[in-house]
Design a protein that fits this description.
The protein contains two helices and no strands. By secondary structure, it is largely without helices or strands.
């Protein structure tokens, strides 16, 4: 079964599942692939901000998602891992 939701399975029936994120109670997890998160933009945006540095990222407009699956990386986490301070 292919599903976007981790709630669409019955534990008693499933012997193996591949999902994004960590394991749940009474489950074992093995890392299959590591994620590499990188920024992308269109050519006009790239041209307009060609002099931007990593420190400028918190000030630039970014796409926002209204809801994400728990455990997905969000901008705050990406910037934090890169040790880029967020502007408030």
């Amino acid at each position: 079964m292919i599903s976007e939701s981790s709630r669409d399975y019955r534990r008693a029936v499933v012997k193996l599942r591949i999902r994004y994120g960590g394991s749940g109670p009474n489950e074992r997890e093995d890392l299959l692939l590591g994620d590499v998160i990188y920024l992308v933009c269109g050519p006009i945006f790239a041209h307009e901000h060609r002099d931007a540095t990593a420190k400028c990222l918190p000030e630039l407009p970014v796409l926002h998602v209204e809801w994400i699956e728990p455990g997905w990386a969000v901008w705050e986490e990406v910037l934090g891992r890169a040790r880029i301070r967020q502007c408030r």
